[in-house]
């Protein structure tokens, strides 16, 4: 059987995932390094089988501008470390209180709360250590670090989005609340992932503006799709608790707009994200495919 | 009354503290920024009246090499943000479970656990945002970020020290355990504070080697002095719970060596730290004074 375009994308993504996992293996201290508890906890969560979406977007953003593959791979891995830190802290009993993540016990379930808090801290810190390694263009790399830090902080970024998510739970949310929460909590970091690969590879300001729009729209679409899956999937399909958003009366797109309308919003966002890439022409084909892939699981 | 050399040092340090507080005020979003809870929690802990020791050491390290005052001040503030993050997370119920810090309720006591975890995350992230701002020498600045990240991570650094501290509590610790815990948990970051000011200001590798020894020895001395104070002071003098190390059977210098011998070890370390600065001559006078100041409260 010859490969369909669809198979080809999956093969392409799987090859990136394999490279990312190999590089993460190199970047993380071994499970027996002293003190082993912290390193085992970090590895438990990093190697729990994530989709490696942020490294994929970072690599793809950088490949558009012929960035150095090794630099992009390391940068992508740093983003995955940050993503894992945020999952560990979000899952804690004081926050979302989740027991299951990617089909495995969450970090605090497996290692206790103290170790989970510290493992999250260590992964966030390690990400900045990796990003600050010698770089072809230290000037561009500083800007990459700045973009990433801004996207995940309180200024507003991931932390403010998570804060708002917690504060809005149990209250009647409207479209504006849920837009802000998703944009800050997930969208800003996904946008930064595409941007920073391109930035590191030397993209122009015009190119960055285009990719910023693409990243923001597809990042929001991805989170909406995730909300929809929380309603329509089983725990086995997702590898994590489902239906929790509704139980905790969380502000989500399905809660505000219903499942069908949420799917339509996500589709429209992906279409707009793809169209935003027009100035980049045919070389942005993969990025367009990836944006569609982000929401395809919901259809 | 004319100023004694001692008064002069205190005036000198107070002037730095005033500048640091002013700059922190500029760097942190206002208490009413949205969502206010996270910004209030961050400000609560940052402005709880710390000694600003790490900014002082960073500034002093950079002044030795005529570094740009504004750059050094920002860098010093980033270190204070990191220090505050580490206090917030260490105080959490799952870790040291402390209610009082610098005479005020700890962050989770005042704002709840979820907000405290996120406020710590946000301060750590903001520190890297501040450090990655445009710099005179992006190459040196990248190395500064790398040094700091390494000192506070699991590789080993602060996180591993804290992990070890928790795991060793309740067990019989020896001199080697307590040396490792203190060096990783506190010493590495204090060493990095002196180093990174000098690094950013363009110090040579030889100068950095000298300052590294100074920082490591005076950092360890500072933590030993802090242990001694936990035994000999009152809650009112310290503004935080005292005697807790002993209650929790923590690995400390007084527990292993007794109070008097611990004082002697701290004094010897400060003497060695001062002597290490010899190649820098008279211009390192302030740094020597500061090292003595670090342990003077215990005598």
CATH architecture of chain A: Orthogonal Bundle
Radius of gyration of chain A: 18 Å
**What structural category characterises the helix and strand content of chain A?**
mainly alpha
Quickly count the helices of chain A. Answer: 15
Question: How far is the first residue's CA from the last residue's CA of chain A?
Answer: 25 Å
Greatest interface (CB-CB under 8 A), with counts per chain: A-B, 53 and 53 residues
* Portion in strands of chain A: under 5%
Specify the CATH homologous superfamily of chain A: Farnesyl Diphosphate Synthase
CATH topology of chain A: Farnesyl Diphosphate Synthase
CATH class of chain A: Mainly Alpha
Helix content of chain A: over 70%
What overall form of chain A do the CA principal axes indicate?
A: globular
Major sheet of chain A: order of its strands? Answer: 1-2
SSE order of chain A, one letter for each helix or strand: HHHHEEHHHHHHHHHHH
Counting copies of identical and different chains, the oligomeric state is homodimer
Count of distinct structural domains of chain A: 1
Features:
homodimer; 299 residues; mainly alpha; 15 helices; 72% helix
Question: How would you sum up this structure, described in words?
Answer:
2 copies of one chain form a homodimer. In chain A, 72% of the residues lie in helices and 1% in strands. Chain A has helices spanning 5-27, 36-46, 53-63, 69-91, 107-111, 113-131, 138-152, 158-168, 175-200, 205-232, 235-238, 244-247, 253-257, 259-276, 285-296, and strands at 100-101, 104-105. The two termini of chain A are 25 Å apart. Chain A has a two-stranded antiparallel ribbon. The radius of gyration of chain A is 18 Å and the shape is globular. In chain A, helix 4 (69-91) runs antiparallel to helix 9, helix 7 runs antiparallel to helix 9 and helix 8 runs antiparallel to helix 9. Chain A is mainly alpha-helical and 299 residues long. The mean pLDDT of chain A is 93. The first copy, chain A, is built from 15 helices and 2 strands. Chain A has a single domain (5-296), classed as Farnesyl Diphosphate Synthase. At the A-B interface, helix 2, helix 6, helix 7 and helix 8 of A face helix 2, helix 6, helix 7 and helix 8 of B.
């Amino acid at each position: 059987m010859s490969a369909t375009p669809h198979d080809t994308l999956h093969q392409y993504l799987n090859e990136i995932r394999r490279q990312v996992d190999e590089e993460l293996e190199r970047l993380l201290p071994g499970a027996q390094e002293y003190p082993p508890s912290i390193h085992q906890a970090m590895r438990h969560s990093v190697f729990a089988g994530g989709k490696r979406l942020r490294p994929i977007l970072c690599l793809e953003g950088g490949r558009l501008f012929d960035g150095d593959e090794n630099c992009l791979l390391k940068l992508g891995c740093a983003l995955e470390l940050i993503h894992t830190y945020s999952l560990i802290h979000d899952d804690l009993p004081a926050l979302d209180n989740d027991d299951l993540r990617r089909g495995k016990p969450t970090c605090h379930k497996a290692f206790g709360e103290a170790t989970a808090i510290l493992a999250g801290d260590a992964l966030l810190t390690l990400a900045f250590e990796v990003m600050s390694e010698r770089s072809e263009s230290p000037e561009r790399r500083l800007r990459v670090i700045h973009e990433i830090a801004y996207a995940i902080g309180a200024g507003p970024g991931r932390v403010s989005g998570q804060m708002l998510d917690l504060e809005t739970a149990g209250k009647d949310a409207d479209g504006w609340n849920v837009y802000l929460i998703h944009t800050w909590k997930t969208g800003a970091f996904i946008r930064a992932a595409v941007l920073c690969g391109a930035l590191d590879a030397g993209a122009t300001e015009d190119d960055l503006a285009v990719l910023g729009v693409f990243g923001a729209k597809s990042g929001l679409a991805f989170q909406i799709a995730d909300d929809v899956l929380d309603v329509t999937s089983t725990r086995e399909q997702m590898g994590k608790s489902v239906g929790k958003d509704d139980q905790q009366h969380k502000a989500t797109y399905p809660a505000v707009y219903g499942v069908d309308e949420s799917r339509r919003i996500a589709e429209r966002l992906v279409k707009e994200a793809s169209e935003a890439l027009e100035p980049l022409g045919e070389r942005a084909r993969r990025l367009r495919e990836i944006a569609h892939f982000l929401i395809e699981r919901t259809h």
